[in-house]
Amino acid sequence: MASLRILSMNPRLKSMQTTEHIASMRLVHRWCWIFVFICHQQAFSQLPASEVRNGASIHLPGTIFLNDLLKDTYTQKKYADVKGSPYYKEEWKSSSIVFKDGKQYNDVKVKVNLFSHEFVCLTAANTEITLKDGIVNRLVLYDTNESRHATMHVFAAGIPFAEKDTTYPILEVLTEGKAILFNLIKKKITNTNDALGMGEQKEFTSSESLYIFYNNELKKCGKNADYYANLFTDKKDMVAEFIKMGKLKCRNSADAILVVNYYNSL
């Protein structure tokens, strides 16, 4: 009891005890973080940390890719003499990829090539590679708009076309619910005559078409209001009235998004 009484009356000893307590708490806090880090590492230890393809590591920061996901190394040499860009966004964008087997990989640097309709990924060794056709279910590309606000663009791939297309086009998801509205953006190389008389030039030009996935079928959208009223037969009158009240022409993606969103809300 005497020793406790002295400790309580001695400010120096009390300060020493407080300092030792703080140091002890910091040590506990540090070990807790070490424990969390070890658990995080063990969660990924079941997968190989990296693979090697053509001498280049394909381990991406925060992401593990396996060799069977890769199509091949990628080159843009064939576009060197073409004006413009084949990509949805010219810059590398951080993305999340969901494969058809359900696996998801985050923080992948990606460009969406709308000329060849391929997902181009950047490895930790700054090697560009493409993913095999038909294995990606969805890709979310993170971006910022003109106001510097965060935004994202969602793409779907590997959906069979009604026209029996055997390729794997990449479709931008505009809105989804009972019905999913897509935008198919295609880029092609066209020859143009230079106004300054420098001869024929090559450049990328874009075309866009709307598609809708409804009742387990992908269809190309018509460019008139009647198309959507006749498509959604279970809510035909309500959809037709919505189009009429909004004076929608349904000739562009903005009107189509409004109509599909309304139907999905019913």
Task: Describe this structure in a few short sentences.
By secondary structure, this protein is of the alpha+beta class. Helices cover 27% and strands 36% of the residues. The protein has two domains: 52-216, no CATH class; 222-266, no CATH class.
What's the structural blueprint in terms of helices and strands?
Elements: H1 2-9, H2 11-44, E1 52-53, E2 56-57, E3 59-60, E4 63-64, E5 70-73, E6 82-83, E7 93-99, E8 104-113, E9 118-122, E10 128-131, E11 136-144, E12 150-157, E13 170-175, E14 180-193, E15 200-214, E16 217-220, H3 225-231, H4 236-246, H5 253-265
Parallel strand pairs: 6-15
Antiparallel strand pairs: 1-2, 3-4, 5-10, 7-8, 7-11, 8-9, 9-10, 11-12, 12-13, 13-14, 14-15, 15-16
Radius of gyration from the alpha-carbon trace, in angstroms: 28 Å
| Sheet with the most strands, sense and barrel status | 12 strands, mixed
Residues in helix, %: 25-40%
What spatial form do the alpha-carbon principal axes imply?
A: globular
Give the class from helix and strand content and strand pairing. alpha+beta
Unreliable residue runs: 1-19, 27-64
- The chain-level mean pLDDT equals 75
- What is the chain-wise order of helices and strands? HHEEEEEEEEEEEEEEEEHHH
Number of strands: 16
The helix count comes to 5
How large is the share of residues in beta strands?
A: 35-45%
Query: How many individual domains?
Result: 2
Question: How far apart lie the N and C ends?
Answer: 76 Å
